[in-house]
Amino acid sequence: ADFPSQGLPYQVFVFLGLVPWFFFSSSLSQVGSCVQVNKALLTKVYFPRLILPISGVFVPAVDFVFSFAVLVGIMLWFGVAIQATIFLAPLFLLLLAVTAIGFGGILATINARYRDVPYAIPFIIQIWLYVSPVIYPTAGLPEKWQVLLAFNPASAAITGFRWAVAGTPPPTAMELGLGVSMALVFLIVGFRVFRSGEMRFADTV
After folding, report:
1. N or C: which terminal CB in the chain sees fewer CB atoms within 10 Å?
2. H-assigned helices in 114-172
3. What Å distances lie between residue 108 and 6, 10, 33, 46, CA to CA?
């Protein structure tokens, strides 16, 4: 498709997008299915139910460590320097985690009542992939599409992660502001929906 790669070898550019994306997509899948996966525990033991969606990001975080090690190896192979701003990369992962917990909490609550949700999650993730700058930079899109994609928290997070690790152009103030705002909206709405449905989990799962 001849996408621009912002001065990086395209392999490095894409992998810099895939590593945080895999963390996000795996987290969203884990959180979205957390109620159904733990239904035996929910019906036998009482514990704060909010632990379930929050714990959904732990396993993907471990996977991320190994993926990042591969990323470092690829960057060294292609002679791409790791930037001093790498210490900011966890902040963009946190943005992805907040989005996954919030949106996943909504899916988990719906999933407790309607069994078709697990089949929908892979389609949601696949569509979300194509509206996130994993294989292309948002800066290479027309301005109207840049504004639209700025409402996607993964857009700012992946662009920011790529900047922090490899020094590509950072996310714009609009992209970062809208991305953080939407992530917080997902988190607040997700927690409210999850808390409103948690008392019925044991009866519906």
Report:
1. N
2. 117-130, 143-149, 153-166
3. 37, 36, 6, 18
